[in-house]
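hey so u asked for the seq, here:
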Amino acid sequence: MGSKNKLKRFKENETFPNVIQPTRDDLVNANFNLKGNWATNFFKNENPLVLELGCGKGEYSVALAKRYPNKNFIGIDIKGARFWRGAKTAVAENIENVAFLRTQIELVDHAFAENEVDEIWITFPDPQIKYKRTKHRMTNTEFLMRYKKILKPEGIVNLKTDSEFMHGYTLGLLHGEGHEVLYANNDIYRQEGSPSEVTSIQTYYESQYLEQNKPITYIRFKIK
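ran it, structure tokens below
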């Protein structure tokens, strides 16, 4: 994407009512007034709150919002030029139960209060296979502790990935640390019994992976 196009998208994001772009300082210094107040101040209802971490173009967040009108969804990504697509679609189609937050995933516990979130989706994250990149792996112990902080006690995490490495790593970690694996499947489109919200919603990249016959994996779990 050219820098001119990016700038245009950044400018347009600023006009969208469903895009929130706090500064890192505001988040770290507890000056972000939506923390703990997403239901009352932003969505203006008490519906369950669901996050998609690393939402990319925002397709999954938008599709989930359409499928579950009685839940609120927030797609989170640092790349605003990417989720511009999802934000624009939601505005054009008048989908009011989805928003987009531009920030780093490492700051998620600064953007949401304890027990504020009902569910988390992690869709096709970078598996960060090299050992020195493990600190960026979105299901490592540090990230799980951040999620636990903001999730309700019975909160759920969903991991959907084309990376068999990421699937195996996460499953091993969950079992090793005593978390509760509710469901795991290493090939959701070829094995029966996959939850419909996992197979009925596909991102652009996911459909490409399927064309290449790559298995798509899924884990649903609770952090203990």
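The chain has a mean pLDDT of 94. The chain is about 40% helix and 20% strand.
lmk if thats what u needed
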